[in-house]
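Structure (tokenized):
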């Protein structure tokens, strides 16, 4: 099973980079399977991620693999603890979502029917430093009621019952941010 999970993480990491949802070292994806979380390794790059660059931790944050997890592992753990229904998380750095977070403070307007159906609302969480427990707690709180959030000056986090679902919710947020940004001109 771990080979399948790692292959999914590799597939959607590459796809996120190809679609412009993240660049360089930014972003990370994870899948929860039982009490284990498979997550991109620290320092790994999404566009050339391999199965060997997937770390494994438990729900307490203990490293179970020889590979260190992403510095955002606290964010993933906090969300999984808050939302037992969530099986996958996408944390990406799409440009339109990030820029919208500098221009809007509370919530990104919903423009498309798809975004309304799958996301309902797109709140914007106030800035907290990357990789911190403070960021993890703030984002997990926003995701109690919603499946996606924009983090001010940072990126987005979406959740789903599968990595595919979390990934496409991330695309919906970026599409919403792009449409909002282009419409304001």
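Design, position by position:
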């Amino acid at each position: 099973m771990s080979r399948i999970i790692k292959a999914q993480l590799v597939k959607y990491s590459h796809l996120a980079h190809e679609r412009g949802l993240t660049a360089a070292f930014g972003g990370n994806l994870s899948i929860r399977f039982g009490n284990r979380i498979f997550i991109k390794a620290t320092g790994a790059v999404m566009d050339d991620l391999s199965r060997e660059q997937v770390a494994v931790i438990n729900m307490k944050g203990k490293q179970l693999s020889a590979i260190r997890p992403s510095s955002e592992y606290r964010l993933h753990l906090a969300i999984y603890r808050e939302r037992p229904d969530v099986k996958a998380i996408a944390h990406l750095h799409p440009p339109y979502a990030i820029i919208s977070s500098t221009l809007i403070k509370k919530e990104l307007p919903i423009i498309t029917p798809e975004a309304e159906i799958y996301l309902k609302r797109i709140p914007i969480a106030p800035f907290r430093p990357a990789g911190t427990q403070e960021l993890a707690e703030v984002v997990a709180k926003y995701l109690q009621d919603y499946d996606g959030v924009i983090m001010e000056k940072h990126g987005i986090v979406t959740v789903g019952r599968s990595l595919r679902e979390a990934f496409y919710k991330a695309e919906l947020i970026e599409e919403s941010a792009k449409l909002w940004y282009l419409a304001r001109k």
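Reviewer-requested clarification: The radius of gyration is 15 Å. The chain is about 40% helix and 20% strand.
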